[in-house]
Every structure is written in C-alpha cells, then in structure tokens.
TrEMBL record:
It comes from Prymnesium polylepis. Residues 164-253 form the CS domain. The lineage of its organism: Eukaryota, Haptista, Haptophyta, Prymnesiophyceae, Prymnesiales. Belongs to the SGT1 family. This is Uncharacterized protein. Keywords: TPR repeat. Transmembrane segments: none annotated. Pfam families: CS (PF04969), SGS (PF05002), TPR_11 (PF13414), TPR_8 (PF13181). Residues 131-157 are annotated as: Disordered. Coiled coil: none annotated.
Length: 365
C-alpha cells in the first residue's frame, strides 16, 4: 500500500508541475495515471477536473468533479463542477454546485462564489424571461395585438417566436471575444444562417408562419471570421466571435476601426463566459484570478502542504532545477527530490536507489 501511495503522489506531483508549466495535456496524463493507481482518491479526480477545464473539456471536467464529490465532497470539487456546468450552459446545475461550495467554504472565497451565483441567476433569468414587450413606439397597435401577451406570458415563455419585431439581442465581451445572444425561442438549427465577415456579421432566422428575422451588424472592431461560431439552444441563438485584437470595445457596433481600450492581461484562451455583460459593472474576468489568489493564500496542512511546497519551488525554479527535480523524483520512485542538476545529471537513481526499511524494490511487468 505504501508503494502504491508513493507512486500516486509522484504522479500527482508531476501533474502539478505540468500545470505550473501550462502543459495541460501532460497534466491530464499524470492525473489519469494517479487515478489508475489510486482510483478512490478524490483529490486526483478534482485535480484532473481542473486540467480538463484548462483544455476546455467541460463535459469531462464535470464528470471528474462529480466523481471527486462522490468520493469526498470538497469546495474545490463543487467549484470546478460549477465552472464546467456553466460553460456547458447548464445553469441550474452550475448554481447548485456553487451553492454547495458556499455551504462548505466558510468565510473564504464567498465573494467570488456569490458572483458566480449571480451570474447563473442572470443567465437563468434570460432563459425564462423571453423577448421584452414591444416598445412604447408600438402603442398604436390594435388592442388585440397588445392585450394578447398579458394573458399568455407564462405559457408563452416556451412558445416559438413568430414576430421578428419582438426578437431582441444582447451582447457581452471578454478581452478576446464578443458574444451576441439573439433571444429567439424554439428555433431549428437548419433555420439559422450566419455569415461572419472581417468587420461585420449577418444573421437570418426563419421563424414560424413564414416570418424572417434579420440582423446585420457593422462591428466596432475587426474579428477573425474563421474562429467565430454560433450555437442554437431552446431560448436563443448565440454568436461567439474572436476579436482580431485583444482589448475592450466601447460598443458593439461601429466602422470596424474603433479605438481599443487595453484591458489587463488575461489568458487568451479564457472562455467567453468570463466576460463583462454590456451595461454591467462586474468584470467577470477577474473572478478566476481572485480564486487563484485565494488558493495561493490558503494554508494547507499535511500532505497538501508538502505538495504546495513542491509546486512553489518548481514554479519559481530555473530550467536546470526543474530538470533535476523531475529526474530525481521519477527515477528514484519518489524517494529523492533534488534541485542540484550538477549532481542529478550524472547520478543513476534507478541503480543506486534503496527501498525503505523492511521493503524491497521489484520490477513490474
């Protein structure tokens, strides 16, 4: 058992080191190896969920976080499940997970978790609210046309939209993406046509009863058409557009040459869901940064404290020190961790290693 534990910890350590290097594929491989060795270790699944999130593999991240929770519930596992579900647009599940994390977290990290809860509430509200009532300018419409929605609001939430004038759109942005949500309900995928251009986007949606909705936007700045996409759900058509140059747009529309406001540097691969809703004072890009800061400020105990010490040393080390740590730890079977590359480069730990007292080394396979 002690040999198994040592090997699993070695894989976890190597996974942590890969995460520090932002080599998420290697991190996934090491965490997967740790799970094979010790399949009932909740921390292994939770760590792999974090790596899955970095690779934008949200379904797998949700699955790993759920497995961790079943083995041993923890705030971090619930947080990672919430982040994965939010990215999958499963807002009810995401809200429930964030709620569990808040219950377990105590006083630490509540502000950030509550912001994620509010963000879930905002998305759920958009899904349930449907299109806004007709503007005041339509007050001249017939009484029958204006009275009908009042008696059918609840039932109409899930009804297909038939009037193009009642379809509205909203937008938000991150440092690298712009997302436009067209709030048209119950639209079939094959009824939606989207054309992305360098400084614009055109959308055509075939509605019920032969009606057609069109949206043509001349954008504030240029986008990268080949890296843009759209998705159709039961409540909206969502366009996700990659900015050609990172920065904050003052508005959605313009002449394609608007002056950018340079935002604080964030991960260019960050998911658009971490952005700022138009009209909001909340900068969702800061949430993950704050969570990382809080994790760094935590005071772990026992084995977790030792792992954190290794991660900190590895993260601040130069290339030779990292090579020394990796070689000594791997080839010694987890019994030696050296930072002296001059010594480690010439040493054969596999030949010279000795087993703990009362045990012996054996080669498997």
């Amino acid at each position: 058992p002690s040999r198994t534990m040592s090997t699993a910890n070695a894989e976890l350590f190597l996974g942590h080191a890969a995460m520090v290097d932002e080599d998420y594929d290697s991190a996934l491989a090491h965490y997967s190896s740790a799970i094979e060795i010790e399949p009932n270790n909740a921390d292994c699944y939770s760590k792999r969920a974090a790596a899955q999130l970095k690779r934008s593999r949200y379904t797998e991240a949700a699955s790993d976080a759920t497995a961790s929770i079943k083995l041993e519930p923890s705030p971090k596992a619930y947080l990672r499940k919430g982040l994965a579900c939010f990215a999958l647009q499963e807002y009810e599940s995401a809200r429930a997970a964030f709620g569990k994390a808040i219950q377990m977290e105590g006083s630490g990290g509540l502000g950030e978790l509550k912001r994620w809860m509010r963000k879930c509430d905002a998305e759920l509200h958009l899904e349930k609210a449907g299109p806004a009532p007709a503007a005041a300018a339509t007050s001249g419409a017939s009484p029958a046309a204006t009275a009908a929605p009042m008696g059918s609001t609840a039932a109409g939430v899930h009804q297909p939209v038939v009037d193009p004038s009642r379809v509205r759109h909203e937008w938000y942005q991150t440092n690298t993406h712009v997302v436009v949500s067209i709030l048209a309900r119950q639209v079939a995928q094959d009824k939606v046509s989207v054309q992305f251009e360098a400084a614009g986007v055109g959308v055509t949606i075939e509605l019920e009863r032969g009606a057609e909705y069109q949206l043509n936007l001349s954008l504030f700045q240029k986008i990268m058409p080949d890296e843009c996409k759209f998705a159709v759900s039961a409540t909206k058509v969502e366009l996700t557009m990659r900015k050609q140059a990172a920065g904050k747009w003052e508005s959605l529309e313009g002449e394609g040459e608007g002056e950018l406001q340079v935002a604080s540097v964030v991960d260019a691969s960050a998911a658009p869901s971490k952005g700022v809703y138009s009209g909001s004072k909340k900068d969702w890009n800061n949430i993950e940064t704050d969570l990382k800061r809080q994790e760094e400020e935590e005071k772990p105990e026992g084995e977790e404290a030792l792992n954190k010490l290794f991660r900190d040393i590895y993260g601040k080390a130069n290339e030779d020190t990292r090579r020394a740590m990796n070689k000594s730890f791997q080839t010694s079977g987890g019994t030696v961790l050296s930072t002296n590359w001059g010594e480690v480069a010439a040493k054969d730990y596999e030949k010279d290693r000795t087993a703990p007292e009362g045990q012996e080394w054996k080669k498997w396979g």
